[in-house]
Amino acid sequence: MKLILKRIYREEDIEILRKAIRRKYGRMEKIKKLMQIKKCAMPDLGEAYLMKLAIDEGSGIEEEVIIEDRKVLNHLSAKRFELMEFLNKNNPMSLKELAGKLGRDYKNVYDDVSSLSNYFVVNVIKFGRETVPVGIVESMQIRV
Amino acid sequence: MWGDFMLKIKRYMLSKDEMAEAMEYFKGERMRYYIYSYKIHKGRKWVTLVRLDNLDGMEHMDIYDENGNYMETREFPRKKFDDFVKIVKTFRRNIIAVDISNL
Asked: Using CB atoms, which residue from A43, A59, A66 is nearest to B48?
């Protein structure tokens, strides 16, 4: 079994990614300098560099997630699809805002997002103390 | 809408705790940069064990221990991501103990 998910990033999502990278690593010059010093010692840095380069050059970002583990199906439910549909139709927001707009308990929303993000069904960005789901799911297929 | 540039991310989840990840940066049809990683989920974060990339203009492979500490860099010929996934699926967490550069 394979679950194949395609996600795209809107300008609003890319802005969140930009802010998160800036907060963690600083400006592009600093990232480049760190890469020269650290070389390959910090693998996350190379990823941040590529992401920042893409953002600065105004490129699109698209993502495909292929999940071979059928246990992922245990993480899907009607309530969680409802949450994903809501995320698709709205700008990125913190889990606290999300819980408020959905009229649901924060802990349940947190648990749902954590569960889905284990398999990158939802992609979240840690932003200081906040967790923000980013990107919209364009398609999801299950192949047997 | 986005012009010529595109960042394509591909995540191949072998389990909840293991994935092969590709980040490929394209200008038009041409891939300028890539990073292919095999990562394990440890504690609350993803730790890279093996990484292939051409960020500094040279194809190479970096190897890290299970805590994410850098161990060594080896020469590694260019591979397609699908081939990298096949290697990862074969060796899983033992990948750091195997010389995969000739595969």
From this structure: A43
Contact A50 B33 (CB under 8 A): yes
Residue B2 pLDDT = 53
Number of residues that this document lists for chain B: 103
Per cent of chain A over pLDDT 90 is: 90
Question: Chain A residues contacting B, CB < 8 Å?
Answer: 35, 40-41, 43-44, 46-47, 49-51, 53-54, 57-69, 71-72, 118-120
Q: Which of A46, A137, A20, A53 is nearest to B26 (CA)?
A: A53
Q: Provide the 10 A C-beta neighbour count for residue A28.
A: 16
Main-chain phi, psi angles of A109, to 5 degrees: -65, -45
Q: Which ipTM was obtained for this model? A: 0.94
User: Which residues in chain A have Cβ-Cβ distances shorter than 8 Å to B14?
Assistant: 68-69
**Statement: the pTM of the whole predicted model exceeds 0.80:** yes
At A9-49, the pLDDT tens digits run 999 999 999 999 999 999 999 999 998 888 788 899 999 99
